[in-house]
Amino acid sequence: MKNAAVLIAPGFEEGETMTIVDILRRCDIHCTIYGTSKEVEGAHHIVLKSDAPISYDVLENDMVILPGGYGQADAMRENEEVQHILKQMAKDNKYVCAMCASPIALEKAGLLENRRYTAYQGYNEKIKAGQYEKKAVVTDGHLVTAGGPACAYAFAYTLADLLILPGDRPGGANLANDPRASELVRSFDAQNKYLGALVEVDQNLITSQGPASPYPFAFRIMELFGVDPAPFRHALMYDLAKGR
Prior knowledge:
alpha/beta, 32% helix, single chain
């Protein structure tokens, strides 16, 4: 079994973090949440319990992942222990991954020099190293980066694909009969089109598909309450992620 470490600090993006952890665990990848404390409050005041404190034990994993969030990104950039972990895992040719604002921590560690990367909109102006690409996910060797919150699914699918060896059969109720874990988690067909309607509204009854459709579900609810979801789609980089 492959092992992945997700590092969180106050101000982490809850949606990104839980999407990554959920999909990796569905794929039977051992995913541990390492936090700056036992309970860590996210950017939207959701408190998450970490499995273990951030320490050099993270180095035993095959992959380290930094979700985004402004406070999270700053903490990961300034934390000397985290910076050592990032540098050492890169040196050991292990996967180093970050999304949203957190690629600034990779820059601080010197890992973006002469590398391709992506990040949350506007961070390409803050980050001076590397070659920015406006994509949902960018993989450059063992370095993997992603854009904003709505890119979390595409990011997690990519990480799962990298850790699952050809022929491996991931576990989990939804994945037990198919080794193509990252395809099975999505509500897509072979042509990458959604199966059926994502969200159905029948008078005061609103229903949606499974784990891969929370954004369309939330956007539809916003519309029903008279709130235009367009600004939120932009802020979440939903269109760049193409709804993935």
